[in-house]
Amino acid sequence: MLRCLAIVLALFLAVLPANAATPVEQKKAAKSKAAAKAKSAARLKAATKAKAGSKAVPKSVMAPAMPVTLARLGRLHTENELQKAVAAARTALAKDPANLEAKEVLARAAILTSDWLLAAEAIGSTAKAERLGASLKRDFSDTGGRVRILAQQGDPKARQALGVFYGRGVVLAPDIEKSCAEFKTGADRLPGAGWHWAQCLLDASPEEAWAQMERAALGGHAAAQEWIGRRCLGEFGATGKDFACAREWLSQSASQGRPRAQTLLAYLVVSGQGGVVDASRGLRLYQLAAENGDPDAQNNLGEIYESGRGVEKNPAVALQWYERGAESGLGSAQFNAGRMWAIGVSGKSDPAKARAWLAQAEKKGITQARQVLDWLDQQTVTVPVPASKTGMAELNESKPR
Predict the structure, then answer these.
(1) Which residues face 348 on adjacent strands?
(2) Interval 349-394: pLDDT, tens
(3) Residue 364: CB partners within 8 Å, gap ≥ 6?
(4) Closest CA to 106 of 134, 53, 66
(5) Which DSSP letter does residue 313 get?
(6) Quick check: 298 and 322 in contact, CB under 8 A?
(7) CB 134 within 8 A of CB 143
(8) How far is residue 171's CA from residue 164's CA, in Å, rounded to a whole number?
């Protein structure tokens, strides 16, 4: 019997864990586990609170995200958008001078600004071109090196931008030879570069220059189209005139909004040279060109309103257009403005204004101005005031614009 009890006890002890804890030990272990869990929860709560607090940090003390990536930079359409991208890149670069993305954005922005500048000049948008030129000088003085790298990597618009930089002495020191070399490199792919390369060739190689000019015109460059049209009119040393050719090229340029081309085309369609007479189209073209600052268009629009050809006669409106052309320095407009102030408009004359405009017109070689000045000096002597030329005034063959 005792032997059997011993065997049972031995078996019971064998199945017990070797390290079984006592009740006191078990209680201590439970407390330790709870304390560790509480400590872990406290750490998690502190971390969550710190993360939430970081959201309240003012944006002004945080590194700004670049709002315009390199991929999107080429899809910008307005000067305002571009300026915002430049400002953000400058801010990022101020916080981290080694920020390569910001440097790249600035270089690409300089290239884009140059491209827009040439496009504005091509259509005769003087005010926009001046703004973009000022931006190049103000905002991108440190981008020349990076633009050079992009040009060496084969970017044609980077080479075109270098042509602008060297040619105008902005961003990089002025160097006409380098400017022409850069424009030559991009001439086959970019009409703007082709136009400027043609300008570089005009004196040394006129035949090659005009061939390049025509390529730029075929590529859609509005200024090149106007120049080809004017050559068809006999300008730039051409030996003959082809009015139909002139109409074709000037129509393409005028449709892009180039004021000088609009004025020349208006003259052709009003006079019927190179095609049918279209007085209403001519008036619209003169109006567009005059509003965009072409002095010949302003003078001829003044004559239209003074004579009442195709519009209701309105001497006051005529005088306004004459004076706008006169303020641009056009001698014929200065004469017409002076003449109208001398004889009076709506019963009101102004000899002082008349003398001022006529004196300027005389300096420009308008001989009729002296006759009106003499008439003003005599005052009591009845002398017919010389009128402006009969019919539409001929356009100036001024320096190419």
Answers:
(1) 345
(2) 899 999 999 999 999 999 999 999 999 998 654 545 666 654 555 6
(3) 329, 331, 334
(4) 66
(5) -
(6) yes
(7) no
(8) 9
Where do we find the tokens 């330790």? 32
pLDDT (mean) for 150-157 = 95
Residue 107 to residues 91, 101, 136, Cα–Cα distance (Å):
15, 10, 11
Cα separation, 267 vs 394, whole angstroms = 8
Q: Could you tell me which residues come within 8 angstroms of residue 276 by beta carbon, excluding any fewer than 6 positions away?
A: 269
User: Beta partners for 345?
Assistant: 348
Q: Which amino acid is located at 158 in the chain? A: A
Q: How many CB atoms neighbour CB 164 within 10 A?
A: 27
User: Which two structure tokens, joined as six digits, stand for 371?
Assistant: 């006759």
Ramachandran category for residue 62: left, alpha or beta (phi over 0 → left; psi -120 to 50 → alpha): beta
Contact 317, 323 (CB under 8 A): no
Q: Where are the domains of the chain?
A: 69-186
pLDDT digits (tens, 9 = 90+) for 243-276: 999 999 999 999 999 999 999 999 999 999 999 9
d(CA 48, CA 45): 5
User: What is the spatial distance between Cα 118 and Cα 127, in angstroms, rounded to a whole number?
Assistant: 13
From residue 121, alpha-carbon distances to 127, 259, 289, 329, 401 in Å are 9, 11, 15, 21, 10
